[in-house]
Amino acid sequence: MRILVVHNPDAGHDQLSRSVLSGELQRAGHLVTWFDPREGSLDEALRAAADTVVVAGGDGSVGAVGRALVGRRLPIAILPAGTANNLAAALGATRENLIPRLAAGRVVAFDVGVIDGSAGRRFFLEGVGRGPFADTVALFERLRHRRKTLGRDDELERDRQAMRESVLSSGACECRIDFDGEEVIGEFVMVEITNAGVIGPNLLLSPGAVPFDGLLDVFLVRAAEREALVEMIGRKTNAPPAPPLPVRRARAVRFQAPPGQRLHIDGELLVHEDPLDLRIGLEPGALRFYVPADLPWPAEGMPA
Q1: Which of 19, 61, 63, 151 makes an SS bond possible with 266, Cβ 3.0 to 4.6 Å?
Q2: Which residue, among 103, 96, 109, 111, has the nearest Cα to 293 in the 3D structure?
Q3: Secondary structure class of 51 (helix, strand, coil)
Q4: Domain region containing 11
Q5: pLDDT tens-digit profile of 182-201?
């Protein structure tokens, strides 16, 4: 099999040896091409002949490759090397099972979020929203040249602490949200429209969310619910669930808010100066990922 390895050396904490990984793939019978996004065009690299893309990086790297491959049916195998690795966890992808995953050849369909409207047309794999997570992304964008090197767990805890502080300081915003024709208007501290139910530093917003059901999970937090959100952020992903906060499911969402909103789209920051009017939906099964043979997931092309 012809494999293109997209490796982000700046991701996360794991030092990945090009020679070691290439050797493992070659011994398994694969032809390997290596690409470093710092050294050229990702879109151009993905147009080269390949049967599979291995993404060695974190959620940002997987998102960049995924957005470039929407609808192309070129399968992706994740080698998690980031900090949160939310997408790898959802897909059962580990460093140790990369070669067995490729050998088993089990590929599943993965929905991709689509945004149209005042922000233009954009894709997302994890989620889009305004509030504490977008504020935290903005904070670390400003401080990225001054950030100290931390271990993975310490970095996740630092990001969660920054989110907790942002929850207490962020102003609520009057938003209008339409869920498949049902309208909700209110003052919300946080609005998150997710595909897989997990964002940022392993923050589980919707335990029942799955990225293959054709549904968006929308997480809403009103001003009076700040303390419940702080408690929720303080819990680990595998801890007992925090007190429930509103989650709606819909095939299509319209999200409207006043000008000057700070948004995140996956882990990227967007400051929207005009009145916000987003129409958000999904392209079911627009991506394909390698998963372990025993992962509970519908067969490719057959979303639940």
Answers
A1: 63
A2: 103
A3: coil
A4: 2-105
A5: 999 999 999 999 999 999 99
